[in-house]
């Protein structure tokens, strides 16, 4: 570690490893504190945000004023050798974080996926059960149907969602 500032960390539960980045490095270690390995040690890179998927570490490199998204393979056969670093995107501006979304990483089922969970308008899954919502109106006594005005205008800004009832 080059400094005492961590910009991001990522837990990989399958391999029991923690990845983190600081000023110029990306490092991984087993949960028990053994097996520390430097994935990236660069005098020029400036890793900021991390994501991991299928033996590839992705990060935002804040070098310069544009920002880049980069990736490197971290399988056992590659670490310790000079693995190729790939640039996947550039001119990312002030991107603060990245995440990998993959169907294969999703566990369980979402009851809102079928028939909107039985909700008239909007189904929200709280991790245990479907919860119905009615933007601009109230949820009726049955917990599924909406009550109140039937027409509303929905205004969205970068900071808020604001439904306004018209009737």
Automatic annotation (TrEMBL):
Q: LDL-receptor class B repeats: which residues?
A: 16-56
Q: Which domain of life is it from?
A: Eukaryota
Q: Does the keyword Nuclease apply?
A: no
Q: Which UniProt keywords apply?
A: EGF-like domain, Repeat
Question: Which PROSITE patterns does the entry mention?
Answer: LDLRB (PS51120)
InterPro entries associated with the record: 6-blade_b-propeller_TolB-like, Cueball_EGF_LRP_Nidogen, LDLR_classB_rpt
Q: Is the keyword 4Fe-4S assigned to this protein?
A: no
In terms of PANTHER family, this protein maps to: EGF-LIKE DOMAIN-CONTAINING PROTEIN, VITELLOGENIN RECEPTOR-LIKE PROTEIN-RELATED-RELATED
Protein name, as recorded: Uncharacterized protein
Q: What is the lineage of its organism?
A: Eukaryota, Metazoa, Ecdysozoa, Arthropoda, Hexapoda
């Amino acid at each position: 570690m080059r400094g005492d500032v961590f910009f991001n960390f990522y837990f990989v539960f399958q391999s029991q490893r923690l990845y983190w980045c600081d000023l110029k490095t990306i490092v991984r270690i087993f949960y028990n504190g053994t097996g520390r390995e430097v994935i990236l040690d660069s005098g020029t890179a400036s890793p900021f945000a991390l994501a991991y998927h299928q033996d590839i570490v992705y990060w935002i490199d804040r070098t310069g004023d544009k920002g880049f998204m980069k990736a490197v393979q971290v399988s056992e056969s590659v670490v310790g050798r000079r693995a190729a670093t790939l640039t996947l995107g550039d001119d990312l501006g002030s991107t603060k974080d990245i995440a990998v979304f993959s169907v294969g990483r999703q566990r369980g089922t979402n009851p809102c996926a079928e028939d909107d969970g039985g909700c008239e308008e909007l189904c929200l899954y709280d991790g245990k059960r479907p919860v119905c919502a009615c933007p601009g109106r109230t949820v009726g006594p049955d917990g599924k149907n909406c009550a109140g005005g039937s027409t509303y205008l929905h205004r969205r800004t970068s900071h808020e969602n604001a439904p306004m009832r018209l009737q």
